[in-house]
Amino acid sequence: MIINIIKNSIKNFYITYSCYICSTILDTHIMKWAELKKIITYKGWYLFRHGAKHDIYAHKDSEHRIAIGRHNNEEIPTGTFRQIKKIIGF
Predict the structure, then answer these.
(1) Burial letters for 9-20: b for 16+ Cβ neighbours within 10 Å, e otherwise?
(2) Which residues pair with 50 in a beta bridge?
(3) Helical spans, DSSP H, in the chain
(4) Is the model's pTM score more than 0.70?
(5) Fold of 31-90
(6) Could you tell me the pLDDT band of residue 71, with boundaries at 50, 70 and 90?
(7) What is the pLDDT of residues 14-68, one digit of tens each?
(8) Nearest residue to 49 (alpha-carbon basis) of 75, 68, 73, 74
(9) Residue 46 phi/psi, 5° resolution?
(10) DSSP string, 58-70
(11) Could you give the CA distance from residue 67 to residue 62 in angstroms, rounded to a whole number?
(12) Domain boundaries, the chain
């Protein structure tokens, strides 16, 4: 029983620490569209449809839609990135 408590506390520490590291990187890192696509698909977002110049992503638990540019190597504008972070929950 004590071993399970220790395992759970270590597991919770790593989850909390990795979330902190991820949020710190997202606050200071200039991100490209390709990196953002990887993050949102990991968070449960899926490709809803192809737009004219953007891919539209949706999530089963959210009514929001996110438009992601197809120019994978371009950096995301700061204001756009902040808004997307709020929608996906960072």
Answers:
(1) eeeeeeeeeeee
(2) 55
(3) 2-28, 33-42, 78-88
(4) no
(5) Metal Transport, Frataxin; Chain A (3.30.920)
(6) confident
(7) 554 455 455 555 555 688 999 989 989 988 999 999 988 899 999 999 899 999 8
(8) 68
(9) -130, 160
(10) EETTEEEEEEEES
(11) 14
(12) 1-30, 31-90
For 17, list phi and psi in degrees, rounded to 5.
-65, -45
Q: Which two tokens stand for residue 58?
A: 């949706």
Q: CB of 23 within 8 A of CB of 90?
A: yes
Question: For 1-24, how does the pLDDT look when each residue is reduced to its tens digit (9 = 90+)?
Answer: 566 555 555 655 555 445 545 555
Q: Per the structure block, which two tokens stand in for 52? A: 């004219």
Stated length of the chain: 90
Distance CA 70, CA 86 (A): 21
Q: How far is Cα 71 from Cα 67, in angstroms, rounded to an integer?
A: 12
> Given strand 62-69, what is the order of strands in its sheet?
46-50, 54-59, 62-69
